[in-house]
Design brief:
binds zinc ion, elongated, alpha+beta, disordered C terminus, 3 domains
C-alpha cells in the first residue's frame, strides 16, 4: 500500500507505520493494516491525555484533534487526515508533494509539522499556501511522532538513505513510545535530555546488528507555536563504520577500550571547557552520591563530539581516545575517521616500537620525548637520541622518516601532519610496548596537553 518517498519525515512516518503493523516492507501493508493504524491514532489523538498535549504542543500546531469542539467537524478532519487513502475517499487533481499520487487536501502546519500556517504563502511553491498531500502520506505523517524520540520540547527522527535502517531506528523509537503511551494516567509525555547523546545511543543500539555502514541523519524538530525549529545532524558512513567495527571487534579488546572511553565521557558535554569541568566534580559522580543516575538524562561528551567530526578529529582523538590507549583502537580511528593511509600508520607503529626499545632503561628519554612542551624541546630530545643511536649504527629515526612524520605539509591529504599529534601517537605505542613500566598517566588531566589553538584545529 505504501512506498518510500525519499522525504525524511514522511519516510520515518512510513517506517513507524510499517513497524506498528509488524511488517518489514511498506509495500506489504494491507488495507486492514492501515485501518488498524488509523483507528489507533484516532484513539491516541482524541483520548490519550499525554499524546493530546504532545500533538497540540510540538507536533501539530493548534490541531483540530483537540481544538475542534464540533464533533462533526472533528470527525470530518479525522476522516480526511487518517482515512483518505481509501479507494472511495475523494481526491483532488493536484499531486501529493511527497509521492506524486492525487492529493487529498492542502496541508498547513496544523496537519503536517514544519509547514507554514494556514493562508501564509511565504516560501510556498506557486505562491499558494500549503502543500498538497495524499491520504497515504498524511497517515504516515500522523504516525511520525510514534517513530520519534521526544527530546525536551522537540522530536528526534533518524533517517537513512537505506530504508532498512530508517525502519530499524523507527522500530526502536516506536517500542519506547508505545511503552510510554501504555502507562495508565500519563499526564505528560516525558522527554529525554541531550538530543545529540540520545541520537548516538539510538545509532549504537542499531549499529551492532547493522549489515553495512551507511550514513544516517538525525532531525530534531519542533513545530511549536512561536518557536518552530529544526536541527540537522548528518552522520557519515565513516563514523557509523567506525562504531560498528569498534563494537563488534572479534576479540573484544576494542569494544572494552571504547566502553572505557564512553564511561569517562559521561556528565560533561562536548565544548564544555576542561578547566571548568575540573573545578566541579563530574555531574555523574555528584549525582551518584545523592540519587541513582538516570542514564536517559545524562550527557556524553564523546557522543556529542562524534557529531562534530571531522572538523574536531584531532581533538576527539587526544581528548577521549588516547587516554584509553590500545593502539588497535587508535589505528582504527586514524584509518577510518582521519583517513591516514596504511603506510603512515605502519610508520608510526614502527617508530613507536623502535623508540620503545631505545627507551627501555632510559626513562628520561621517554619523558623528554613524550612531554616536550614545544617543538624545540622535542626536537632536541629526538636529535640527541638519533645521534646516540647513529653511533651504534642503528639510528632511532632516519632523515626521511623524520621529514615524513614530523614536518608539516601543506598537502591537503596530510592535513593532520602535526608534530604534537604524531609524537603522542608514537608515545602511545611506546607505552604499549613497555617503554616504561609504571602506569604513568600521560594523556589524562593535563590541561596544557590540548592547547587552545589545537582545540580550534
Ligand atoms: Zn503522498
Amino acid at each position: 500500500m505504501l512506498n518510500w518517498t525519499g522525504h525524511p519525515l514522511v519516510d520515518v512516518g512510513i517506517a513507524a507505520l510499517t513497524a506498528f503493523c509488524k511488517q518489514s516492507d511498506p509495500t506489504a501493508l494491507t488495507e486492514a493494516d492501515l485501518t488498524a493504524a488509523a483507528d489507533y491514532l484516532v484513539r491516541l489523538y482524541t483520548q490519550n491525555r499525554a499524546m493530546r498535549g504532545h500533538a497540540d504542543g510540538i507536533v501539530f500546531h493548534n490541531t483540530p484533534y483537540t481544538r475542534e469542539r464540533d464533533p462533526q467537524a472533528r470527525a470530518a478532519y479525522i476522516a480526511e487526515k487518517l482515512y483518505s487513502w481509501r479507494d472511495d475517499a475523494p481526491t483532488r487533481a493536484e499531486r501529493c508533494a511527497f509521492c506524486g499520487r492525487p492529493s487529498a487536501y492542502r496541508a498547513s502546519r496544523r496537519d503536517v509539522p514544519m509547514l507554514n500556517g494556514q493562508a501564509v504563502i511565504n516560501f510556498s511553491p506557486a505562491g499558494r499556501d500549503g502543500l498538497p498531500v495524499c491520504g497515504r502520506c498524511s497517515l504516515a505523517l500522523h504516525m511520525l511522532p510514534l517513530g520519534c524520540v521526544k527530546c525536551g520540547g522537540s522530536l528526534l527522527a533518524a533517517h537513512s538513505p537505506d530504508p532498512a535502517i530508517t525502519l530499524a531506528l523507527a522500530r526502536d523509537a516506536l517500542e519506547r513510545m508505545l511503552k510510554l503511551l501504555a502507562l495508565p494516567d500519563l499526564e505528560k509525555l516525558p522527554g529525554v535530555k541531550y538530543e545529540k547523546t540520545r541520537l548516538i545511543e539510538l545509532l549504537l543500539r542499531w549499529a551492532d546488528s547493522a549489515a553495512r555502514a551507511v550514513p544516517v541523519t538525525g532531525y530534531v524538530f519542533s513545530n511549536s507555536g512561536t518557536a518552530p525549529d529544526m536541527r540537522i545532524y548528518p552522520i557519515s558512513s565513516a563514523i557509523i563504520g567506525f562504531l560498528r567495527a569498534v563494537r563488534t571487534n572479534p576479540d573484544g579488546t576494542l569494544t572494552e577500550a571504547w566502553s572505557r572511553a564512553v564511561a569517562r565521557a559521561w556528565g560533561k558535554g562536548f565544548g564544555e571547557s576542561k578547566r571548568s569541568a575540573d573545578a566541579a566534580p563530574p555531574k555523574r559522580a555528584r549525582k551518584a552520591a545523592a540519587a541513582p543516575v538516570d542514564p536517559e538524562q545524562e550527557v556524553n561528551g564523546l557522543f556529542e563530539a562524534l557529531l562534530a567530526l571531522p572538523a574536531n578529529a584531532v581533538w576527539l582523538l587526544r581528548r577521549y581516545l588516547l587516554p584509553v590507549r590500545p593502539w588497535g583502537l587508535i589505528e582504527l580511528y586514524l584509518r577510518m575517521i582521519m583517513n591516514l593511509n596504511n603506510e603512515r600508520i605502519e610508520l608510526l607503529r614502527t617508530l613507536g616500537d623502535r623508540f620503545a626499545d631505545y627507551a627501555k632503561g632510559r626513562r628520561d628519554f621517554f619523558f623528554k620525548f613524550a612531554r616536550a612542551r614545544n617543538y624545540d624541546e622535542f626536537r632536541r630530545a629526538l636529535l640527541r637520541a638519533a645521534d646516540d643511536t647513529a653511533r651504534e649504527g642503528k639510528p632511532i629515526i632516519t632523515f626521511d622518516e623524520f621529514i615524513e612524520v614530523f614536518t608539516t605539509s601543506s598537502d591537503e591529504y596530510n592535513k593532520y601532519n602535526n608534530w604534537r599529534l604524531m609524537r603522542d601517537l608514537i608515545a602511545l605505542r611506546m607505552l604499549e610496548r613497555g617503554a616504561i613500566t609504571d602506569d604513568e598517566v600521560l594523556f589524562d588531566d593535563e590541561p596544557e596537553l590540548i592547547s587552545q589553538e589545537e582545540e580550534e584545529v
